[in-house]
Each structure stands twice: as structure tokens, then as C-alpha cells.
Amino acid sequence: MSRLELSTGPLPAAPQTRMNSNDRPHLTIRTDGRLLPSAPCNSQQILSKKYFAVPYCSSIFNICKMTSSSESTITIIGAGPVGLYTAFLLAKAGISVHIFEKEAAVLQSPRAIVYHPVVVEDMKRSGIFQDVLDVGYVGRTGLQWRLPKSTESLASLPSNDKATSILLGQHDLADIFLQRLVEYKHVKVQFSTALESFEEGNDEVNCNLSTSQTTGDGQTKFEHRTKYLIGADGARSTVRKKASIPYEGFAWEDFRMVAANMDYDIPRYNGWGDASFICDPELWAVVVYCGKGNVWRVASAERLVAGKEEEWDEEAGIKRLYGRLGKLLNGPTDTAKVLAIKPYSLHQRCAATFVRGRIILAGDAAHHTDWNALPDTQITNPVGGLGLATGLLDASFLGRCLERIFTNKEPDAAAVLAEYNEKRRKVFLENTSPIATANRNRLIGATEEARKERAEYFAKINKLDMDFLKELVENQMAMASA
Ligand SMILES: Cc1cc2nc3c(=O)[nH]c(=O)nc-3n(C[C@H](O)[C@H](O)[C@H](O)COP(=O)(O)OP(=O)(O)OC[C@H]3O[C@@H](n4cnc5c(N)ncnc54)[C@H](O)[C@@H]3O)c2cc1C
């Protein structure tokens, strides 16, 4: 058995105050665990797109010393945004936490980009918002629904100063969390290390992990003991599977979604704002500004023929994407430069429970609506940007629950975690899931009933029906648990 310990030795001094994005230390870890001083990815460089489409430099902690056993109060599997946000909140509460991530760096695939006011409010409370604001782009033009190529919108939901949305790639958000974790000595982050299995005892969980790092004694497998194990390991969660917690839900098999980041001046040729939902039974899509240069996310639907799902071939997929772009957008779409592309299949699922004994699920490991990436990644419905939003709010509530157990010493830990399970499952089943489904159906719906619902919905938005808008805001704010 061997243990990899975090060392902040070679890192620049831990920040005493919040740094702006240009000051932050940027370090890259190699699979052998050595730290490389990597090129900084400050906003200027991001603007020049130099680091945008490639796994640039998630700032990562140094791993340098191996010992024969390890333990932490809390262990998190998965250094995605949900795992890292949970770690940040626990770190602030003084709780020792160790994160294991199977990849060598934070995943870079094109996924979450929008963070709604309910998440912004939570980030303000947790003290991370200014960091996010430094790097992210504040949405200014609200959300429009439109037909393909249409410069006129069907409906327009304006943004306002009191309800700010932030546009920022989720890998950048993860990078911000990592930067802040550098401040805490009781947090360890270990990449290139996968959870394989665990055994749960009365007082602790014993995790079995494997690492691709070369260890001092040549071992690649080791054990780690923890009071609670959090599965923030995404939709194919090993933690959920090994805990035998089933997903309940269903799959949509008629379409898949292809998410692409591209360099194309959409406002110039189309006059569109930051975020557009494209309504069309075949060509439905979500088009969102990535907040940097001319980089846009176009997530467009691709019909699947039942029983004929082909393996994803990126070259062929990009060719088909250009075919759709010509029908979705105005201007010379053949000049658009595809920076990153990933296909996702669609489904809607929720874990039967988010807590079993000392095992806790959060984020996509606990729930995901509509979208399931092929075949190696799975994710949450981008129509409405609710997946990660719900996951970050899981993290927030879970952080407070664990603080009650470990800092406030509430005696009945099981009851506190039962509250987490009950409240967060309820939010997913009664808020996130129905809102995400309605968002999707509103884009696709071709039946008379769907058209009627859409027309009524748009009419209320366009005449700024205050009761209706208040209800929209309240439904979203209810995604946070008190
Ligand atoms: C195109 C698209 C657009 C989206 N847009 C939005 C949006 O605008 N807003 C929004 O809120 N949501 C959005 N989502 C959803 C969002 O991407 C997910 O909800 C989010 O990624 C969930 O984060 P997570 O941390 O739970 O999981 P992940 O980001 O999937 O992270 C899980 C991590 O666990 C690691 N892992 C897995 N197994 C193991 C193991 N055994 N051992 C160690 N590590 C492991 C993985 O490598 C990964 O790094 C979008 C999704 C897609 C596909």
C-alpha cells in the first residue's frame, strides 16, 4: 500500500488574499506526479484562444511523497466541479478532505457554460463568487427562443442586475476551485487515481484505489480510510454502482445531442444575444456565448435511427455538424472553426437514494436529466443549464450538513444525512427534472398541444407577466435547499 501526500512545497506561497485570474499560480501535474511550471492561462491567453480547446492547465497540486496508508475525514471521488466545490466548502469548515480523480487533469469536454442566479447567490455566500466573476462573463442579453436562422426572437427573457447569470466553461470553474484549495493544508487532491471498490464498516469506509503514478515502492494499488465517502464521480459513478444504488428513470432514443465549441462571429451574421434556444422538431439546438472572443457553444440535435446507432466518428460528426450549421445559422458557416466536439445521448435519471450508510452521492453521480454522453462520458441536460446548477447546490447543502456533523457535533449524523437525501432528491424530482424536460419539449414539440403550451409560455414572457416571471424565478430559487 502506498499513499500519495500533497505537498505545497514547490508551489508559490499560499495566497493570503484572493488573487485575480492573472496572478494565480498555474501548474500542471505529470503522470509521474512531478509538478511542471506550465504556461499561465490568464484571461489574455484565453482570449487568444490559445488554451481554450485543449487541455490547458488545470492548476493542480503537487504529489510527491508516498507512505503506506492514508486517511481523511471525508473522501471525495471525482475532481469535477461538484467534487471540488464540496471540497472547498469542507476545507473552509476545517474538515480534512482528500479528493481522488482518475484522470490526469480536470476533464475538458464541452459541457456546462451557464450558471444561473440561484448558483450565483450560492457562490456569493460561499465566498467564491469574486473569483468566478474575475474569469467569467456576465450575461447581458438574457435568453431568447427563436427559429433556425431567425434574427427575430419568438420570446425574450431579459436579464437584470438583480439576477445575474455567469457564462464560464465548467473546466474553468473547476480550475478556480482548485486554485482556492491551495490555501488549505488539510485538503489533498490526487489525480490519475481511480476508486476501484470499497468496504463499509461501522465507523469508516475503506477505499481501494489504483494510481498510474509511479510510487516509491513501485505499488500502484493502495487503500484509504475515511469516515464518509462522497461519490461526485459523474453519471457512470463507480461509487453509486459499488454501493448498489440503482438509477431510476428512462432514456430518450430519438435524438442525440452534439455539443461543439466553435469560433464563429454569431452576433455579426445573426444578431443573436448571449443565449438562444432554437425551436424546431429536427434542428432544435442551444446556442450560448462561451464568454471569450468569438467562441460559442452550439449544442445541436441529431436524429438517431432506431437500432442503427453508429459509433461516433469525429470526422464524420464534424461534417454532419457543418450540414446542420448551414441550416441553423446565417453567414459563412463553413468558415466556423470547430474547437471541441462531443456527442451525448439523452436520458433522465435519479439515484434511488443519495445516501446509504457512509456513502453519499452528489452531482451527476446522483442525478442527471436527459443527456448521456457516448460512450465514455455522461452528463446532464443542457437545455436550461440545470445539471451542474443542481450539482453545485447539492454540494452546498452537503457541505453544510457535514459541517453540522463535524464542526457543530450534531449527535445524530444519520438524521442529518437523511435530510440531505430527502431535500436534494426532492429538488431534483420536483424542480430540476420537470423544468429540464419542459425546456426540452418546448424546443422539439410539434404536436398541437406542444405548440399551444409554447405559444402561451412565450406570450407570458413577451408581455412580462409579472406573476409568471415571479413563478419562474421562485421555481429556480427553490433548487437551493435551506
Ligand atoms: C453540452 C452540455 C452542456 C451543459 N451545460 C450545462 C450548463 O450550462 N449548466 C449546468 O448547470 N449544467 C450543464 N451541463 C451539465 C453538467 O455538465 C454536469 O451536470 C456536470 O458535469 C456534473 O458535474 P460533476 O462534478 O457531478 O460530474 P463530472 O463533471 O462528470 O465529474 C466527475 C469526475 O469524476 C471522475 N471519476 C469518475 N469515475 C471515477 C473513479 N472511479 N475514480 C476517480 N475519479 C472518477 C471523472 O473523471 C470526472 O472528472 C451540461 C452538460 C452538457 C453535456
Automatic annotation (TrEMBL):
InterPro entries: FAD-bd, FAD/NAD-bd_sf, RIFMO-like. This is FAD/NAD(P)-binding domain-containing protein. The keyword Oxidoreductase applies. Keywords: FAD, Flavoprotein, Oxidoreductase. The keyword Transport does not apply. PANTHER family: BINDING MONOOXYGENASE, PUTATIVE (JCVI)-RELATED, TRK SYSTEM POTASSIUM UPTAKE PROTEIN. It comes from the Eukaryota. Its cofactor is FAD. One of its GO terms (molecular function) is oxidoreductase activity, acting on paired donors, with incorporation or reduction of molecular oxygen, NAD(P)H as one donor, and incorporation of one atom of oxygen. Residues 73-427 form the FAD-binding domain. Residues 1-25 are annotated as: Disordered. Transmembrane segments: none annotated.
